[in-house]
TrEMBL record:
This is Putative 5xTM membrane YitT family protein. It is a multi-pass membrane protein. It is found in: Cell membrane. It comes from the Bacteria. Keywords: Cell membrane, Membrane, Transmembrane, Transmembrane helix. The keyword Aminoacyl-tRNA synthetase does not apply. The chain crosses the membrane at residues 50-71, 78-97, 112-133, 154-172, 178-195. It holds the Pfam family YitT_membrane. The keyword Acetylation does not apply. One of its GO terms (cellular component) is plasma membrane. InterPro entries: UPF0750_membrane, YitT.
Length: 229
């Protein structure tokens, strides 16, 4: 474990906290006010509650733990530490934002705007966290893990997993409500993918955390968040 602390970089931790703050801000001021939701684990927990009566507090915890365990198995201990930092950061920042009145209380009357703006907040925030090797939610841990083993870019993994959940959710949620969530997950997933391909600065692969856009997807090493070219 001591070697993990040596691998950690202050720049990575700061980016994780920044991403967590942006995510908390967006979810509190946009998503919670507009009822435009994401897919993934959140949608799956609601689905399990509706069909099987399983509380989201139980299913959400179990699913999140399983996703983080998978990430730890495939991505290593540094991933787990960074994910812990981003998760705690998200909770702290969300608690802080809750102490203030929402900045956009009427956003629910503009679902299209909420879907687009919400996607930007989620895409940029999660993109920053994933870029340096941390997963603020179980959804992100799952996407990062699958990105390691599947010949797909991470934005398509996000999209497919979210679409599956949203399509199943049509069994109890009206299409009129799902369509805005669909727009959000499509946009946020694509933004996350774009964030992984924006070069910060060139470094050796040993010092980078790469989602390897090359066909062989060979490089996945944890570092300060740069993607080597």
């Amino acid at each position: 474990m001591r070697s993990v602390w040596k691998e950690m970089k202050l720049s990575s931790v700061l980016l994780l906290l920044l991403g967590s703050a942006i995510l908390a801000f967006g979810l509190y001021n946009i998503h919670s006010m507009s009822n435009v939701t994401e897919g993934g684990i959140l949608g799956l927990t609601l689905l399990l509650e509706y069909w099987f009566g399983i509380s989201p507090s139980v299913s959400g915890f179990i699913l999140t733990v399983l996703c983080y365990l998978l990430g730890w198995k495939l991505l290593g201990k540094l991933f787990l530490v960074y994910s812990f930092i981003s998760s705690i950061g998200f909770s702290v920042f969300y608690g802080i934002f809750e102490q203030f009145d929402p900045l956009f209380p009427d956003i629910a009357t503009k679902p299209l705007l909420a879907a687009v703006v919400g996607a930007i907040f989620v895409g940029v925030s999660v993109g920053l966290c994933v870029r340096v090797g941390g997963a603020p939610t179980g959804d992100d841990a799952l996407a990062m893990s699958l990105d390691r083993v599947l010949p797909l870019d991470i934005q398509w993994i996000y999209l497919i997993s979210d679409l599956v959940v949203l399509l199943i959710s049509l069994t109890y949620i009206p299409v009129s409500k799902i369509i805005y969530s669909l727009l959000t997950v499509i946009l946020s997933g694509q933004i996350i993918g774009v964030m992984q391909k924006i070069p910060f600065r060139k470094k050796d692969k040993e010092d980078s955390y790469s989602f390897a856009v090359e066909p062989n997807r060979e490089s996945w090493t944890a570092g300060d968040g740069d993607i080597s070219q």
